[in-house]
Write a structure and sequence with these properties.
433 residues; alpha/beta; Dihydrodipicolinate Reductase, domain 2; ten-stranded mixed beta sheet; binds nicotinamide-adenine-dinucleotide
């Protein structure tokens, strides 16, 4: 299969290596495209180092790239608010698409993707790596076995620490019109997991959210009143636990600081700026088509990082806890190691709780990324019993909870998904589980 990639920033490396390196026997990388010629050149050089010449194209030459290189599939790894543009153009030019999450960030852009998909019949794969984390696949396995009976309710909390969480407040993610806010950008992973675990989709959504921490008042309280617009030139940087050192971190310096002259994209804007438009504290309540309900919390300034989830069922309860980072001390993460940081407990009513051996794997995102890449790029990998592959339908349902939650935060109302879609002229097929 022939692939081209648009967006040669941080995330594209995983796909580039998979196509041009790990799975290069079955696949060929035929083109790279980016608005920033510096990042484009770094990526092209990495492919060339493997003995592979690669054609590069500026953003406005995306169409030329497709005409000249004829990729079967375009991989989209640009910022979230641009996904729809490339997804639609690629499908209209006859290509299939593989896109990073979130598939897109609002209903107008979702409609553009759904219309182009219907017109062209092309496939859109959304690369939900979180489904492939072995410990989360194990939860699916247990739920599929019926061990806790009918799932009636879910309590789900995701904790982002003050290094990783803060990073969403430094660049394009921090503007709702560029990322959809964390309820779309980040939580689409989590809401996708819930859709998949439950084998269902949301019917109604209510939410509250606000920016409680990453704001000027917090900087004042921390004694950081003399602040610059970015860490690189900030007079308080040496006293700030939230500092991102672009100069001192070689990969970040090369990819972002040295690329700034081309597009002015700054990777280290101050996390306490007034112009941030996303929330850092969010709670969502959702009802699903199968009758289950979910309470969900996302906090972006926790003292530790990880997740806790409990599934309540008619026969018992399943609980999973994953500590990824024990804590942040002086701006540094104390990362948890190995599978001992994860616990899964199955408590069938009337029996003692069973503390299960948690399924584990090596690699990024809790061992998820290598498993997903094998499923995406190695044709010899067997069909998946867990239905982890995700189409545009999964992509759409995964963002709907967050888009509806954003509207609920704005209006104070409960959002009924059927009506929400109909009012916006969107027909979305139900996922068949
Ligand atoms: N699944 C995951 O775990 C995961 C992890 C990280 C990022 N992501 C997703 O990957 C995507 C990219 O994130 P990132 O961290 O690499 O961002 P990034 O800012 O590092 O990279 C984005 C790249 O897109 C380029 N770009 C910007 N505008 C463009 C345009 N109009 N045309 C062509 N190229 C353009 C930028 O120059 C940059 O090189 C996002 O959608 C993000 O949500 C997913």
């Amino acid at each position: 299969m022939k692939y081209a990639i648009v967006g040669t920033g941080s995330r594209h490396k995983m796909f580039r290596r998979a196509v041009a390196d790990t799975y290069s026997r079955e696949n060929t990388l035929v083109g790279l495209c980016d608005v920033n010629e510096h990042r484009l050149a770094i990526s092209a050089a990495a492919v060339a180092a493997k003995g592979n010449g690669i054609a590069t194209y500026r953003a406005e030459q995306f169409g030329e790239m497709i005409t000249e290189q004829k990729p079967d599939t375009v991989i989209v790894t640009v910022p979230d608010y641009l996904h729809h543009e490339y997804i639609v153009e690629a499908m209209r030019a006859g290509c299939n698409v593989m896109t990073e999450k979130p598939m897109t960030i609002d209903l107008d852009k979702l409609k553009a993707i759904l219309d182009a998909q219907e017109e062209t019949g092309r496939s859109v794969t959304v690369t939900f790596n979180y489904r492939y984390t072995p410990a989360r696949t194990q939860l699916k396995d247990i739920l599929m076995s019926g061990a806790i009976g009918e799932i009636t309710a879910v309590d789900f909390t995701w904790y982002l620490d003050r290094v990783h969480g803060a990073d969403y407040f430094r660049r394009w993610h921090r503007y709702k019109n560029q990322s959809g806010g964390l309820l779309v950008h980040k939580s689409s992973h989590h809401f996708d997991l819930v859709n998949w675990w439950l084998g269902s989709s949301p019917v109604s959504v209510t939410a509250h959210g606000r920016r409680a921490f990453y704001k000027p008042e917090t900087a004042e309280a921390l004694g950081l009143s003399e602040r610059g617009p970015r860490c690189h030139t900030c007079p308080s940087a040496d006293r700030c636990d939230f500092k991102l050192d672009l100069e001192g971190n070689e990969p970040l310096r090369e990819l972002y600081l040295e690329a700034e002259d081309h597009d002015g994209y700054m990777r280290d804007l101050c996390v306490f700026d007034d112009d941030i438009t996303i929330e850092d504290t969010m709670q969502v309540h959702a009802l699903y088509a199968n009758g289950a309900t979910m309470n969900y919390t996302l906090c972006a300034y926790s003292p530790w990082e990880g997740l806790e989830i409990t599934f309540h069922g008619t026969k018992g309860e399943l609980t999973h806890r994953h500590v990824e980072v024990h804590g942040v001390f002086g701006g540094k993460q104390d990362k948890a190691k190995g599978s001992e940081s994860m616990t899964t407990t199955l408590h069938v009513a009337g029996q003692a709780p069973q503390h299960l051996d948690v399924w584990a794997g090596e690699g990024d995102h809790g061992g998820a990324d290598p498993v997903m890449l094998a499923h995406l790029f190695d044709p010899s990998v067997a069909a998946d019993n867990y239905g982890r592959g995700s189409s545009y339908i999964d992509g759409a349902w995964s963002i709907l909870t967050g888009i509806a939650a954003n509207t609920s935060i704005e209006t104070g109302e409960t959002i009924h998904i059927d009506r929400f879609l109909a009012e916006n002229g969107i027909k979305l097929p139900q996922k068949k589980w």
